[in-house]
Specification:
Elements (H helix, E strand, L loop, with lengths): L10 E10 L5 E11 L9 E3 L4 E3 L8 H5 L2 E3 H6 L2 E8 L4 E10 L5 E5 H4 L1 H5 L3 E4 L5 E4 L1 E8 L9 E5 L2 E3 L2 E4 L9 E4 L3 E5 L24 E6 L6 E2 L1 E3 L2 E3 L8 E11 L2 H4 L8 E4 L11 E4 L4 E9 L6 E5 L14 H7 L13
Antiparallel strand pairs: 1-2, 3-21, 4-5, 6-7, 6-11, 7-8, 7-18, 8-16, 9-10, 11-12, 13-16, 14-15, 17-21, 17-23, 19-20, 21-22, 22-25, 23-24, 24-25
């Protein structure tokens, strides 16, 4: 058991605090186990958690923004790392909240589900152009994530951070029928996105990844934004005002019941690529959420799909995606090995 991560009465995660060293390299400044206790009236297998005051370190980082990332409510600290994915057609009066993502590097790499990124195409908003090399550009559509601002700064609210680039893997199948859209045959339902590095040199607060899969019977829990409501936009003198956004992070706990490590070849289940089933309630818009293992120490999977009103969901394995190449030939595994992006390397039995 990893002490400080879980108890008999509640779950928890091992959360790092990232910052940049004087030599310019990213480093874990400190690390803390954060317990997650259900709010009163909620069952232990699906719940929003109690939010208390947390202090991540006794030696505050020098960067001001990293300092503000080192303390606050449990809710605030986790929402820096587990973030809503949004899509906004510029000029419209709503920002669509379409899924959940999580930060995996201090430099701004995040992971979500590929079907979350495909929502504009599948739902018919935003203009998507695909070149012959399969690269896509989207006109008049902003896609990104929401990251909260620490109220201690005196600024209440959040920032919308757009994606610089995104990658998902598969092959497009052009329909011979005029009325049907092209279809993506996905290799996996995992996607990787890149946020712009912050001008002040501060870190995005990354969580710990694992290259290793779940074991059958292992306890697993997803953490994401269940059934988020869209954000209403008001325009003042022609400029958008995004108002306020608040939604509880929810935790869904269950047991891994089946593994499909060769699903990309055998097609055992509809979930694309290496995947697994687990007994958990996963409401809408939790797609792309992290699935923790090893008693909350690391992330082994990504929420892919669920069955309505049932405690039966599927997740995609993170490990196999780590070696899939980006357009520039790099990959998450190469970035992790290089040590230049601020990605955790967690080692130990059962991790």
């Amino acid at each position: 058991m990893i002490r400080g991560i879980s108890t008999d009465s509640n779950l928890g995660i091992l959360k790092p605090l990232w910052s940049r060293r004087p030599d310019g390299r990213w480093a874990i400044h400190d690390m803390k186990g954060i317990n997650l206790k259900p709010k009163d009236g909620f069952a232990s297998d699906f719940f929003p958690f109690e939010s208390g005051l947390e202090l991540m370190t006794q030696t505050p980082p020098q960067n001001l923004r990293d300092l503000f990332a080192s303390f606050g409510s449990t809710d605030f600290l986790l929402k820096q790392s587990i973030v809503p994915v949004i899509a906004w057609v510029v000029g419209e009066k709503i920002v669509r909240c379409i899924g959940t993502a999580f930060v995996v590097s201090a430099s701004g790499y995040i992971i979500t589900a590929s079907h979350v990124l495909l929502d504009p195409q599948e739902s018919g908003y935003g203009k998507i152009d695909r070149a012959q090399d399969q690269r896509e550009t989207v006109s008049d559509l902003l896609m990104g994530v929401i990251i909260p601002v620490n109220p201690a700064t005196g600024v209440r609210g959040f920032e919308i951070v757009p994606f610089e680039e995104a990658w998902y893997w598969g092959s497009w199948e052009k329909s011979p029928l005029f009325h049907e859209a092209d279809k993506l045959n996905r290799l996996t339902d995992v996607a990787v996105c890149k946020l712009p590095e912050r001008e002040d040199g501060s870190a995005y607060q990354a969580l710990n990844l694992s290259l290793f899969p779940f074991e059958k019977g292992e306890g697993a829990f997803a953490m994401g934004y269940a059934e988020m409501k869209d954000i209403q936009v008001e325009y003042v003198d022609g400029k958008p005002n995004f108002g306020q956004f608040h939604h509880d992070l929810c935790i869904s706990f269950g047991e891994v019941t089946e593994l499909y490590p060769h699903n990309h070849i055998n097609r055992d289940v509809p979930t694309p690529g290496p995947s697994f089933d687990f007994q958990a309630r996963i409401p809408g818009r939790m797609s792309g959420a992290p699935i923790f293992g090893a008693q909350g120490a690391i992330i082994r999977g990504v929420v892919s799909r669920s069955f309505q009103d049932e405690k039966h969901a599927s997740g995609c394995m993170v490990g196999p995606v780590m070696t899939l190449p980006f357009g520039n030939g790099s990959s998450l595994k190469k970035l992790m090995d290089a040590g230049t992006e601020g990605m955790s390397v967690v080692r130990g039995k059962g991790l």
